[in-house]
């Protein structure tokens, strides 16, 4: 069994409140869950309205599939016009670890 995680640090566009931040981040998290069948959540920086952390996890039988899904997710996040991707941290775990 293989588990892969991605943690994104993103800068949000024209956002001036935590309410606007939630309105922007929630649809992104929902799309990640729906489109890729992964676990996704807003993580970190809860009090900063222009920064957001988004975490994603995927589990699969082989490492190649995990890497493929994580690559697609990272491309999708980089292409989103409403956020600027500051960093993406990827980790891959085996059940043997």
Quick rundown:
This protein is of the alpha+beta class and 97 residues long. Helix content is 37%, strand content 39%. The chain has helices spanning 18-36, 63-79; strands at 2-12, 39-43, 51-60, 83-94.
Tags for this model:
4-stranded antiparallel beta sheet; 97 residues; alpha+beta; Alpha-Beta Plaits; 2 helices
Written account of the structure:
The chain has 97 residues and is α+β, with helices and mostly antiparallel strands. It has a single domain, classed as Alpha-Beta Plaits (2-Layer Sandwich). Helices cover 37% and strands 39% of the residues. The protein has two helices and four strands, in the order E-H-E-E-H-E. The protein is elongated.
Number of DSSP E strands: 4
* Overall pLDDT confidence: 95
Provide the gyration radius in Å. 14 Å
Which CATH top level class fits?
A: Alpha Beta
Poorly predicted ranges: none
Q: How many separate domains make up the residues? A: 1
Q: Assign the structural class, choosing from mainly alpha, mainly beta, alpha/beta, alpha+beta, or little secondary structure.
A: alpha+beta
Secondary-structure blueprint of this entry?
Blueprint: E1 2-12, H1 18-36, E2 39-43, E3 51-60, H2 63-79, E4 83-94
Antiparallel strand pairs: 1-3, 1-4, 2-3
């Amino acid at each position: 069994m293989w588990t892969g995680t991605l943690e994104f640090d993103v800068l949000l566009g024209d956002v001036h409140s935590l309410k606007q931040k939630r309105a922007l981040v929630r649809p992104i998290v929902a799309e990640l869950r729906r489109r890729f069948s992964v676990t996704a959540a807003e993580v970190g920086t809860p009090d900063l309205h222009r920064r957001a952390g988004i975490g994603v996890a995927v589990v699969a039988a082989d490492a190649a599939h995990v890497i493929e899904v994580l690559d697609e997710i990272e491309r999708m996040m980089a292409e989103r016009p409403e956020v600027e991707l500051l960093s993406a941290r990827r980790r891959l775990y085996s059940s043997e670890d």
